[in-house]
């Protein structure tokens, strides 16, 4: 019997689905992340903030902040984070002193040129209308402000790619199902399909008003860090 492939949601259906999914997995989200990535995600977040070269006291908007991992690291560095997330459940489980804002990344409730930096960790594929989101990021950042986007990726090495596909497609849903919500962790590997090809993604960021747009592969290519500066 042929396997039925369920199409990924789009538009406002995706907004509702993503919000509900993250509400459901919020209570154990941090624990599952640490287990699934063997704590590599902790180092990736540190590299993300290192790349921004921001001074103590910098105001940084963390889009899709979840339970506040990046915000807590910012606080350790003397920055002033603002945590924004679509999911009320994630914000309810946030462990950060940062102000919490529930909002869609397409409509940032921030003043123009009010932020020194913007981060977004593992959420680009969950956003609806990336072009609109990048335009809002550019609006909210001050001229020469720093953008750092951390996201999953796939290795280019054939052997690593094979192992990555098995782990991400089979093991991650199994771990997620045992520790949290199985349907959510079956969806998350599939959600990579939302990401544009790298040249297209980088071009979208540049077109939104950013310069020095660069991509860096992390840990053999299983994650990626995209950095840019707001055009002056």
Tags for this entry?
232 residues; alpha/beta; Rossmann fold; seven-stranded mixed β-sheet; 9 helices; 43% helix; 22% strand; disordered N terminus
How many DSSP E strands? 7
Q: Which structural class do the helices and strands define? A: alpha/beta
Helix tally? 9
Average predicted confidence as pLDDT: 94
Task: Please tell me the total number of domains.
Answer: 1
Give the CATH topology.
Answer: Rossmann fold
Corresponding CATH superfamily: Vaccinia Virus protein VP39
Q: DSSP strand (E) fraction?
A: 15-25%
Cα end-to-end separation: 58 Å
Helix content: 40-55%
Shape: globular
Q: Please mark out the parts with pLDDT under 50 across 5 or more consecutive residues, or reply none.
A: 1-5
Radius of gyration: 17 Å
Strand arrangement across the biggest beta sheet: 3-2-1-4-5-7-6
Helix-strand pattern, N to C? HHHEHEHEEHEHHHEE
Q: Please describe the biggest sheet, giving its number of strands, its sense, and whether it closes into a barrel.
A: 7 strands, mixed
Question: So, CATH architecture?
Answer: 3-Layer(aba) Sandwich
